[in-house]
Structure formats: C-alpha cells, structure tokens
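Per reviewer request, we include the raw input and output of the structure prediction for the construct analysed in the revised manuscript.
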Amino acid sequence: MSWRGTLPAACWNAHEASAIIPVEAESTSDGVFLATHSTIPITQRDQVDNARGGAVVDERSLLRAVQEQPADQPIIPILGKSGTGKSHLVRWLRAHLETKESTRLIFVPKHRMSLRGILELILEHASGERADELRAKVATAVDAAADEKTAQLKLRNALAVNIETRGNRTDGSPEEIELRAYLASPGGLPALFGDDVFRSRLLDQNGPIARLVREKLSGKGDEDKDDAFGFTADDLNLSVDDVNRAGQAAREVAGALTSERSFRELAARMINEQLGPSVSEVFGVGGDDLKQILTDVRVEMDKQGLELLVLIEDFSIFQGIQGGLIDAITLISTEAQRLCPMRVVMAVTTGYFINQMPETVYTRTYRVFDLDLPDGRGASFQPAGFAGRYLNAVRVGATELDAAHAGGDEVPNACEQCPVNAECHSSFGQVDGYGLFPFNTAALDRAIKSQSTDGGFVARNVLTRVLRPVLHRDQAEIDNGRFPSYGFANDFRSGASDRLANIEDQFKLRSPGDEELSERRVRLVRFWGSGAGAVNLAPTIHDAFEVTPINGLDDPKPPIVDPRPSTPTQPSPTPTPTPQPVAAGPALVKAVDGWLATGNILQGEINDLRNIVFQAVRQRLAFDDGYGGDSLWGNDKALAPGFEAKMVEFSQAKIAGAVLPMDRSNPEDMRALRALAWANHKNNWAEVPDGERLQRLTETAIDRWATRVGGTILPPERPNDDTELARLVEVLLNIARALGIADAFKSDTTSRIRALFAPIPARTDLESRAGLRSLHGFLVDGAGSGNSVTRVGRGQLQQRLLRHASYSQGSGKPLALDLHKVAKVVRSGAAGAPWPESTPDLVKSSVSTIEARLASIDSLHAEASNLVPDLSDLGGELADVAAELLVLVNERANAGALPGGINPADLQAAAKAVRPGDQRKVEATFAELSRWDQLTIEEKFQVLNGDWDEPARRVDTWLRMARQTVRLLEHSLGNGSPSDVQREYAEARDQLIADLTAMADSISTPATEDSSGPEELA
C-alpha cells in the first residue's frame, strides 16, 4: 500500500515524460502542445529602435497584431534569448490563426530544415515555367554540394578568396584600417585558411564551418542554439601540435591572433562579413535567387488575388541568403510590378535582430514582441502554473490528450480522479486544479533557480533540465521509497545551497542507524521546506516519499483547505512560502556551512579553522616548551588539521602522520568544527546558540582528535621506571632551590616541574655575597668547553632530561615536554636512585660534584649573617624609635647645643627609606640564621636566597646612623662646662641629661613602661 492506496506512489508513467516534454515545441502533437500551453507574458513595443519600456501583454495581443497588420508594415519580430519560448509562441500563433481563404501560409520550422527545404517550401506556391526552372536550379545547386566534406572545403576556400578581395575597408579608425589590410592580405587570414596544418582546426566538427554546412544541408539539430552560426574570437585562438610544418605566413598570423583577443575579434568579424556571399557560392543559391523566387511567387499570387503570410521559427536559418529574404519582404508593389501583400512573423534572437538586421527592416516593422520582460515585471508569470500543465499532461498521457483534442473536448485533469487529491493539493500545491506533485512551489522554484544562469526563467531549461529528468528518472525512485534521490539533490544543489546549510539543523533531521533515510530527509527539508531550518513538513509530504518525520520537531500547522473545487478560469496558485531570513552568523561559521553545501572553501578560511583546531588539540595534549613557557608547537605547520586533500604534514618522518584529515563526510567532525568557529567568535560557549550541548559535543571531538594526534607523536609509556630521569629531576630541583627559584619550594607538582626549567631570578646582592655568587655560577656554567668539558651545568642537565621526556624536531631541538611522564617522577619523590649503565660518566661525576657542593654551604651562613642586623635591643617599633630620636635631635639643634657630626636631614632620610615590613623581614631572617643547624637543606637554601637583602641594607643604614647620633649626644651632655648664664638652669640641665641618658638606654635596652617622653623634656 502506498500513500495513494492501491495505486503506485507516483501518479504518471515515466515514458510519457519524453513524449510530452520535448526539446522543441514543434515535435509534439497538437493535442499535447495545446494541453501544455501556458500564457506567456510578452513586452509589446511599437517603436523598433527603442529597447526599453513597452506594455506587458500576452499571446492574444500578438494574434490581434497579425490580424490587424497593415501591408506597408509587413514585419513582426518575436525577440528573446535562446530557449525563452519564441518557437512555442510561433507555433501557438499558427494553431490559433484564422486566415482568410485568400491567405497562403508558409511555415518555416527551425529544425531539420535545409537550405533546399526552405526554398522548396516557398516554391510550393509558385507555378509555371519560371517556377519549374527555379526548382531545377535549386536541386542542381544544392545537390552539387551535398557531401559535407566537399562543402566544408569549398566554404573554407570561398571565405579565403572573399576575405582577400572584399575584406578591406576605408571606414573606421586608422588602426582598424591597418589591421584589416594585414588580415585581408595574402599573408593574413587567406594564408591561414589555405594552410594544410591548420586545416583540422578550421574544419573541426564543432567549429563554425562544419556547423554551418550541416545546417544548410540538414537543418539545425535539437541541440543547436537559436543564434546564427558564425565565427567567434575563441574559434581563432588556434594552436596545433606540429606548428613547425605550417607555412611561415600561417604561423605568423596564428601567433598574432593567439596573443591578442581584440585582434581575434576583428578577424572573426571580417570572416562573418563574408559568410553570406561564400554560402551562396558554395551551394549555388544566394540571396538574389531567394529574392527572385519570392518576387515571382508574389507576382503570381497577386494575379490570383492572394496574399502571403510567412511564419519563421528561427530567422537565423536564412544565414547566407537573409539579404534576399529581407529584400523580398520589403519590396514595394508598383504599377510596373504588381506584388501580392506579404507579411512575415519571425522569431529571432534579440542580439541578431539588433546587430545584423539592416535599417530597412526597422522602418517596415509593425510591432515588436519581446519575451525579455522589463525589470520588475517578471512577477506576472507563474513558473508553477507553467509546470503544472506539463505535469498534468504527463499524468494524462499523449494518447488521451490527442483523443480529447480530436474530439474537441477540454483538457483532462488527472488529479480529479486521484484518491488523495485534497491532501496532495493542500500539501504540495496546485495551480488551476493541476497538482504540483512531486514538487511543491518551493522545490520547483529552487530547481528552476539552479538551472538559470542569471536568475531568469528559460522555458526550455525548465522543461528539459527540471521537469523531464525528475519525471523520467525519479518515477521509480518515488515508487520504491528512495526519493528525494541523490541525483535530484545533485542536479539542483545550487538552487538550495543556502537552505539548511547549518549542519546542526541537518543533524536534527537524522535518524541514528539509518543514513539513507537521514540523507533523504535532509534533502526533503532543504528543497521542499520553507527555509526556516530543521522542521517537519506537512504529513502528506512525508507519507508520499516514505520519509518519517522527526519526533520533537515543531510540526507545521495544517493548512486551511477550501472544500470547494477549483475553477480553471479562476487561477488559485498556492503561494510561495516566504523564505525565513537566515540568521547572520560569524564568517567562519558561514564558511563551514558553505563548505558543507557546495564543497568550496577559501584557503584563508581553511587556515583560520586549522588554527582554531590546532589550539584546541594542543591545549588538550598539555604540552609546554620544556622550560615552563608556552609550547614550541606554536606554528601551524606542526599540528595543523588537514581539509580533504589539503593536509599539512610534519617535517620529520617520526611524526609525519599526526594530521587530522577532516572532510565533509564526517558529520561529527563538521559539527564540532562549526561549533568551534562559533565559540571562537564569541570567546565563550554561553553566547553560542545551543552552546551547552555543542560544548559537550565539541569536547568529545577534541578528545578524539587529541587521542589521534597523541597516538602518533607521544612516545609510549616505558615498562620500567626511568632511573636516570628520576636522578635528573632530583638534582635539577635541588639546583633550582639553590638558585632561589620560588616554584622549587612549593609542594604542588606543576610548580616543581616549572622550576626545573624556570629562568634564574635576577639578584642585586651578589656583588656583596661572593659565596652565593660563586655557588650560582658553579651550578649554571659547568667547567671546561668543547671536548674538554669536565663538569656539566644546569643547561646541559636540562637537555639530558629532555632527551628522556620530550619530543624533538628533526634537528633534535626540544619541541615539547611529556608532562605526564615528568609529573609521575616528581610525585614519586624518589631520591638517590641508582644511575643506569647507559648514563655517561660525565653526567654521573658532574651530579656527584654538584651534590657535594650543595651539601657544604655552611660558609654561606656567616656571609649572610654579616648582612642581617640584630634588632633585639631596639626596644620597640623602629618607626617610633626613629621619630623620638629625631625630636630630640631637633630640640638640641633649636637650643644651639647639637654636637658636631649629627646631620638631622640624613638621619630623617635614612628613617624614611625604611619601608613597612622591613623590620619584620630582618627579624625573621635573623632568627632563621640563628638556628642554622636546625634547618633542613631545603630551608637553608630558602633562607640564603630569600628577598631580605634590600630590607636588611635599609635597616642597617639607619641603625648605624642612629647609634652614632646617640653616642654623640651622650658625650656632649655628659662632658659640658657650666657658665654663669647656665647656673640658673642647673636643675633643668641635670634633668635634661637624665632624660637623654634614659633615651640612650632605651635604644640599647628594652623600654620600660615609665620611660619619659620628649614632651617631659621640654
């Protein structure tokens, strides 16, 4: 059972598609032609020389114009580009034109009409001896060149002669006149046409000479375009395999033509100018003969009181003799030569009519009907209505259509008998009662768009590239539940490339475990959907194609169905769904969408995406440079993911396979890549649409990528512990402590690994600490050079460690550190592990020497102790003591009794130089140095390399100056002689001396609670 009950899912016979939808309008029967005809919008203009403006009319206006056409304006051209329906319009006119008994109609079809056939059509209306003579001449002349090869050679030779004898002109620019003279000379184009080496190129079966000969002998084929055959600039871009065998002149002119396009364009124009007379010479019948034939016919028909109406499907088939036709059409009846009225309706491409018709045609034209509509007027035509009639005709079949036409009945509508008529029309759409199944308006518009080069509607392309392939090829696909097929999506992909381009929307439409169904559902929504993203379509559409909807997606609201039957005379087309605007996304997100939809992506976009993936994978691998800094994997040539065939490999063979070959076939990779592009744009996941879910998906993908890359570039875990690595980690960590590297004193693994390669802190105290400076130099520099190295330093030991726990470039330079491996050793805390036999003696002896030097650092204790002052007898906070001392000094200075050697400004400056916290740091360091024998080796290194040097220097500078000041004040107050003036102040002096003594004591001994302050001294 299908969606149509016991009937097949497809409601037509595939074989009918070829019969109903031909390449050309004249190849179908009248019944099929009239059943499939749609009203065509046409621009009608009264002024031939005005290519703009005009009124939009339909084919009935053309019919009226032919019926009303005056005899002195005998020409009505039907203009349009190739495939727009000019031939169809001429045939419709022919079917509906009611002529008078006195009218003789000559219909000249565009295909399979040879030169002889054209002339014989006209001669059918002529009688008498003159007509018989002309028939004999036509037969003899054309038969003389009936062999294509002979005709091609004759035409080539005729062109060479006519170019040489007629190619020069005296009008035009001086440059053009000069170039024409060269091309028309015996050494120009005639030499090229006459050269045997270039013969194969000039007579190529797809070239203009061969095409023109075939047309004159057999008529145009279905595949031939409406334009007149002729040479183009591309036909003259000549090259041959054995150019050295060609004549000198032919080589020179061929080279000149190849080097300059404008030169080729002039040469093509000169050749085309001689095509007409050359054709006449080759086939023995020219424009003058055609003119004479038509003139004789018109004379004879005038005698019979008749008139002549000529319908020409393609005026270009008269190429070579068109001058005679135009002359015959525009010939005026006179008293001396009475001619019957002659009217001509000709289908002709716009370019041919404008560029190759003489002025006389314009003056004798009645009206112009142009199938190229003015800008903005294309909405009056409905492609769905055009297609609907053909879809119905294929369902009905040619036999039934012809029977209805023969009986004068209306065109049958196959949809009226269909059991799912209402559901089908409400879901797929209909126009004038003709259903659009298997299309809907959206799918039809997108398929048509894909076959249009400029976005316009070309009837021939819609029929032969859209309707016929789908109805013929996909009928079985629909019946067997395989539609929309890959062929459908591939044929029309450019029309829907901007639809459902988001891989996330595609993923929502997938059925796990059924890739074929998933792909069909994506195609279905992309072409038949409204463009709003991942949605379920109308249930009938899913049923018709056996594509189950997705649970959880928002289902479309059921359309309102009008139960009344549609009236054919009142069109009720299903409106085109309004495309939802595609949300503007970041450029790289759009690049991924475009790559998925079209397979195209710019190199710059590839590079940006590579960099994003590279950064994500590198972070997951936890590499650094082996020295605690950023990874040396910083260039995009080291770990760049490849895109399809565009892969970037490593330079060294060991890790050349560490690439991520991403292509469009892996949806999980593409989803992660697109999500990373979003996150990179937003700098966080919170602002990414559906960011929480996409982050989880992306993390999984990055883990997968990192595992793949890591499996290639990471060395395998060693089965046994690397004892040399353990010893190297141990000694380098001790060296880092001896150098004062802060991370070496921390307990976490990451800090300790960082300390192994961290730079040495800059110090300002090494000039005053010769012992510490000597130790640092010993640890860093090693001893000896070149082949005479007796002891290695820190740098060489780091390189030795990297040989055990890093991955090097092809040159051996460390590239990245295996953090996992080193962390395992650091966390183990192993000490004193035995050296393996493979360790060089120089490394073992150097480490032993370093360890011995690190164990004997007691000499550095005395050096440090000499720099740290003892503040145990300060008696209080240094800032308070310094302030009291400065008050005392200022009191003595104001009394004129300040001893020499005391500078209050220097004393104040020294006090201000001491910073908050200096006293505490100096006291703590002094305390640690005082219990030296109780410290571990690690604590000793921490004290020796502490940042106490500057605080100790500042405190010591003030303390020395303060002690000197107190001594000078004591000496001055204790040894002075009394004077007559001072006796009366003896008591005050004695009290002052006592207070100063107490102040001095407060500096040397802890202060008591009842000490006197400066205020009491005053």
